[in-house]
Amino acid sequence: MERLQKVIAHAGAASRRKAEELIIEGKVKVNGKVVKELGTKVSSSDRVEVNGIPLESEEKVYFLFYKPRGVISAVSDDKDRKVVTDYFPLIKQRIYPIGRLDYDTSGILLLTNDGDFANLLMHPRYEIDKTYVARLQGIPTKQSLRQLEKGVKLEDGVTAPAKTKVLSAEKQKQRSIVEITIHEGKNRQVRRMFEAVGHPVQKLKRERFAFLTLNGLNAGESRELTPHEVKQLRALAETGSH
């Protein structure tokens, strides 16, 4: 189920704001009845008409994108900074990112116009594994890593157990590279987790999302997910297995 104005916008009939105006003005019907409530939710089986014309739903598309650093995980930015959808100028569908990666974090980001699919993958209950590689200040001790693996206390709650692995450590430069796998999506979570154990992140990249990797892609490049990959992701989310 998705909000009516979002469905209208995704179908390309109007912008989100314009869709809200049309609803308030009584120009939108759902299953033959005029709807003026902005909070109304509809499913793909509902028949939506705008100004008497039935909506044709957009073909669903799914992309894997290698987000570079210095790009916003959004479809627009009020400060006019580069956003992820700027990398898809030829895509007619109104795609948007599933979740987000920080401005200064690079790596895997999925984009789609399929709201049900996006909600499924973002819901914390479904526990999709996300693996990051972080360059840290200092070298974490076994005790620090154990703390991350058990869960660390942040201002918005204790994190779920994580998996960690030290990939390299430079004693002279006092820095290390650590892989961490989490399945939550709190804001700036990985950075805050490492900060909580005394090792600020210098550089961060999301290397894997479930079974998907960045193989064959350079920063700023993307590819379509195969139908099989989409099916696998749905199955993963629905079963809650990793």
From TrEMBL:
Taxonomic source organism: Heyndrickxia acidicola
Name assigned to this protein: Pseudouridine synthase
Presence of the UniProt keyword Endoplasmic reticulum in the record: no
Family the UniProt entry places it in: Belongs to the pseudouridine synthase RsuA family.
Keyword Protein biosynthesis included in the entry's annotation: no
Cleaved signal peptide residues: none
Gene3D superfamilies: Alpha-L RNA-binding motif, Pseudouridine synthase I, catalytic domain, N-terminal subdomain, RNA-binding S4 domain
Enzyme class at the top of the EC tree: isomerase
E.C. number(s) listed in UniProt: 5.4.99.-
NCBIfam families: pseudouridine synthase
